[in-house]
Amino acid sequence: MIGRCPFAMARYKVWAAVILLIVSVCFLARLAFVRPELPAFGRQLWVVYFGSGEDAYLVPEPRVGPPAVEGRLEALVQGPRSQHLNPVLPPGTKVISYQIEGNLIIVNFNSALVENHPGGSASELITVYGLVNTLTEDPSLDFVQILVEGRRIMTIAGHVDVSQPLRRDESLIGAR
Amino acid sequence: MGNRGLRFFFALSVLTIVLLSAGVGCDAAFRFYIGDQEVDLVESLVVNGNILIPVSVFEQYMGAEVETNLESGELTISFPMFTLTGQAGSNRVLVNGEEQIMGAAPQVSRNGDIMVPLRFIVDLLGLRLNFDTKQAILYIVLTEEMADWIASRRESGRVGIQLPDFLEPDFSDLPETPVLNEIVFMGGPRSRVFVDVKGFSVYHSFLLTNPDRMVIDLADVELKGPIPTQEINDSIVKRIRGDRFDERTVRIVFELNRATDYQISQWPDGGLEVEFNYQMSGIGYYRDDQQNPRIWFEANEQPTFRVQLLPSPMRLVLDFQYTTLLSGAREILVSDPPLRSIRVSQNTPSVTRIVLDLDSPMIPVNVEEVNGRYEIILFEGTEEEYQRKLAQEAEQQVLQEQPVDFTPLVPADREIDDSLPLAHRIIVVDPGHGGSDPGTIGTFLGVFEKDIVLPISLELGRLLEENGATVIYTRGADYYVSHFDRAPIANAVNAEVLISIHANSYEGTTAKGVETLYNPLYLENFRFAQAIQNELINHIGAVNRGVRPRTDLNVLNNANMPAALVEVGFVSHPEEEAMLNDPEYQKRIAEGLLMGILTFFRNYR
């Protein structure tokens, strides 16, 4: 009898371990695969800036969901959902990579940003500050440095100096 | 109930955005509160003991209806208890149609606002204006009634940044119960799908395997009709089907080639946008012909990656966003200093991570598509070292190029009549762009900006010389001069003014008119820009888009004299492009610019 005791204990332990394993696998699987989404009421709203129809202002377009830098960049690349708004990035523009250093974000674009840019100071300002204002909506980011294929550039279309990190510009935001 | 709740949520979120963005630079020596809300006073003035503040404050912080016209100086402020109309420069105003005298006249500010006497408006509102001299806080004491009214304006979205009508979802149209209209496959590298739901629903989404599929369950949604099964068969999605799952649930099933993570974002009216991850596989390393280290990978599209260079042990971490690694985690030993090994793994369901173990820093600088695969070009060194190397290369190139002769051509023997209005004035005329830089290109005739602004500039130069000025061009013909080198030219010849002539462009075909940009650092720049803008508009009758203060323009920033950049019209507008291309119109623009310069010298010199 005394000899069997440790064996019985061990069997009990094995079963406990197996059950624990099954429970934890189920739990992990649930974490990994099932994503319960909350209704929109409790969700965050964030905005992307696009160009207005005629007067070349920046207009915030709302997005629902948790804001993230990659989401903001992707929204800029995809362009506006509203037909009344204009994209701020020229066609074919892609974000190669980005880097965050404190309150500065460095965004590396492909050359379409410059090559496909239509030019004109009105549209250049919309491009630069549509990007800068959208990214600096993130409260932890204050400055944006634009790179093209890893290179610091002087200007996108000849007017706005983008060689240095840029600050947010509220004066271009309007909804009239 | 949903309606009100949503509207409030919307207004609140917009307000949060406003609050986040407020609190930037305040020049005022005091802090200003309306009730318990601090106001970010961009500018303030004191005239005859009256504090003047931007009229937009009443709109942004108190919900008033404000209309201003910067050209005529007219302004209207409407509160429920009164409507005030006035005019910059005059202290006589109409309050509900009756004339009253203010302590000081409103004035147009340099930031494009109209400054109005604060106390006068506060008195009209029947409120008190207090000043806490110890803490230097100026504040308007709100009555309960006023505070409620401001709150109601806030709720209706009237306070703060306004979303234009076309963006504000029409919640009155949303049905009581959300309705699923249809499922639209939009495609693209991430197999985008739009689930057209009108109204907000609670939804759950999850992945199932054997067979691999992604499921969205929508709770309490009505079906408009049966959901047809869609055969997709692209690289990610095989088939999309949907049906009522039980009494409360509608289930949408995306049959997948392979389980992969996805993102769902909800549109403000309730619609769901589904996107699957980019698919990434295969990874390798080599040095190219120039001995640049390169990492290659295969993917259905180039994903964006986040770069982090981390110390001890030194490693470069590249996080590919929204990417599924198909080929499984692996480690490649490289031993090609400074690179020791490369590890690739699925870091989170939506991020594929490549880690480079290093002995010294390395950064990615570019991505090239070569033979259907993507190659990340690496630089051995830090970001700073890379930018320095590029700067050195650029300098080398400049040294090799023929230097442009900037020596001004001043006709020494020219006799100038001292009675001429611009006698002995040195004026630099800067035609925008040039040479390899065409500037913007007309949408319909394909006119180059550089070819429009050059004849205007030359004609302006001729007219200026007729009036006695000595004119120096930053470019007198069609060749390239960097915009950064233009103000230095004007500085070198001690010019009295610099005028830069450009043509504009904007998305679409409706934007048109003239605008003049200036650096607001000096009042003279504003005066110069204003003179040019007004005279040009008067002379050619184009749409007046006003003067714009900008601190970021490379042509104007380093000029030591009054400088302005005038955009004489839009080549993206079909009629304006044709006009700008017409030599007669170009001549009239030059005349208008001359008048602007004459006005400036007459009034301020």
Q: What would you note in describing this structure?
A:
The complex is a heterodimer of chains A (176) and B (605). Chain A is an alpha+beta fold and 176 residues long. Helix content of chain A is 33%, strand content 23%. In chain A, the strands form 2 sheets. In chain A, strands 4, 5, 6, 7 and 8 form a 5-stranded mixed sheet that branches. Mean pLDDT of chain A is 83; it is low at 38-43. By secondary structure, chain B is an alpha+beta fold. Chain B folds into 4 domains: 2-155, Copper amine oxidase-like, N-terminal domain (Copper Amine Oxidase, Chain A, domain 1), CATH 3.30.457; 175-276, Immunoglobulin-like, CATH 2.60.40; 279-384, Immunoglobulin-like; 426-604, Aminopeptidase (3-Layer(aba) Sandwich), CATH 3.40.630. In chain B, 22% of the residues lie in helices and 37% in strands. Chain B contains 10 helices and 39 strands. In chain B, strand 3 (45-47) and strand 4 (50-54) form a beta hairpin. Chains A and B meet through strand 1, strand 2, strand 3, helix 2 and strand 4 of A and helix 1, strand 16, strand 22, strand 26 and strand 32 of B. Strand 1 of chain A pairs antiparallel with strand 16 (203-208) of chain B.
Major sheet strand order of chain B: 35-34-36-39-37-38
Mean pLDDT over the residues of chain A: 83
User: Could you please say which CATH topology of the largest domain in chain B applies here?
Assistant: Aminopeptidase
Could you list the spans of chain B in which at least 5 consecutive residues all have pLDDT below 50? Answer: 1-28
Q: What kind of sheet is the major sheet of chain A?
A: 5 strands, mixed
Q: What fraction strand of chain A?
A: 15-25%
Give the helix tally of chain A. Answer: 4
Distance between termini of chain B? Answer: 65 Å
What is the CATH homology-level superfamily of the largest domain in chain B?
Zn-dependent exopeptidases
From the helix content, strand content and strand pairing of chain A, which structural class follows? alpha+beta
Fraction of residues in β-strands of chain B: 35-45%
Global outline of chain B: globular
Q: Give helix % range of chain A.
A: 25-40%
Q: Find the count of extended strands of chain A (DSSP E, 2+ residues).
A: 8
SS field, number of helical segments of chain B: 10
Rg over CA atoms of chain B: 32 Å
